[in-house]
Amino acid sequence: MYAFMKLFSALSVLALVNAFPSAESFGFQRRANSTPTGGSICGTKQFILANELPADINNDGGAPLPKPNTTYPVYTALSVGMQNYTCGADSTWGPLGGYTFLFDISCLPQMHHAPFTSFIAALWDAAPPTVSNEQIIDLFEQVNPGTALGLHYWIADPNNATDGKINAVWDFTKSERYVNDTNRANAFLVAAETGNVPDPKNSTVNSPWLYEPILYVNGKKDGQLADEVYRFNSNGGNAPNNSCFPGSVLQSKSTLNFWLFGGAWEDTIH
Q: Which residues does UniProt assign to the signal peptide (predicted)?
């Protein structure tokens, strides 16, 4: 429980950074908005994706990560939670989605994103197995509501619910950031996955880095939160590279970053 409380305290630091006047001294301009209507807390024009991705990120196999279609992200998020796996008939682990919690890190300078994410990962990894999803939900609800962005989870393929495929969802519809937003019901997106490369530091332990464009269903975008999502700075999240008993399930702790580009709230970038 001590490690869990340290994790809570560390995440609460984000709320303090967001509230502390010196955020502007880093060049971050906080939105003057007493009636939240989406968007990040601090300006995101300081964030450049190319500075997060190694120049050779697409040289080690997988499907390459393309450049984003817009220059700046609308959201920069810390993701903390679990990746789920199930053991297939061939006795190997296959992805079964997961459930993670997303926090706004736009008030942290970009140079601190990766080390802060690794710091949170170490605390999350040290938390005992007795820490449940319900406790994480409590943590999520207690953190400054402007810092808690939303949830990340998976659903059956909206284009074919019986094909066994799953698609990632980013859901901000219950976030306090959207409490006064008339478009709140559309503050989500369902994504496809077209870019997937090995983690450049430790591909055995850390989950792959991804490019996930929005999914189209019946010719329409499934959600309006963003048009493109990049996943990187992975800490953990992979299944172990060993044989397993068919039908068994596994949870792997995961801490990483998501950057979301485009979407209905792109005009909030400053």
A: 1-19
User: Which residue stretches of the chain have pLDDT < 50?
Assistant: 1, 20-23, 25-29, 32, 34
Whole domain around residue 9: which residue ranges?
Answer: 2-268
Tell me the CA distances in angstroms from 84 to 134, 136, 221, one per residue in order.
17, 16, 26
Q: What is the pLDDT of residues 142-154, one digit of tens each?
A: 655 568 899 999 9
- Give how many domains the chain has, as a whole number: 1
What one-character DSSP code corresponds to residue 42?
Answer: B
pTM summary value: 0.89
Length of the chain: 270
How many helices, marked H, and strands, marked E, lie in the chain?
3, 11
Distances (CA, A) of 28 to 20, 40, 114, 188, 223: 11, 11, 18, 26, 28
Q: DSSP characters for 217-230?
A: ETTEESBSS-SEEE
Structure tokens at 69: 């279609």
